TrEMBL record:
GO terms for cellular component: membrane. Residues 8-84 form the Opioid growth factor receptor (OGFr) conserved domain. GO terms for molecular function: opioid growth factor receptor activity. The keyword RNA-binding does not apply. It holds the Pfam family OGFr_N. The keyword NAD does not apply. This is Opioid growth factor receptor-like protein 1. Keywords: Receptor. It comes from Geodia barretti (Barrett's horny sponge). Belongs to the opioid growth factor receptor family.
Amino acid sequence: MVAYNKCSLGEVERSDCYLERFAALNTSSHNHRRITRILKSLGELDHEYLKPDLLRFVLREGILYGHLENTLDSCMKYWVETIGEGQSLALSTITC
């Protein structure tokens, strides 16, 4: 994953070596716990606005493309819960 527009509100896109990185993320639940900590830290560091785009990216890659299918359980059980008040995941915006 890489920031799509570094001046943006957190848009994320695939990096050049995404398949290798996604494989590592998909095979280890330990990495899922790391993402949980990253998301919680973003909130504590007043970067709550970055979370929705990151989670939409993970959901899109898991649901539409099947690259991160093993992350979907953690995403729905834990990561979505880290989104603070006033933030919206807006699942309807997950498109190809």
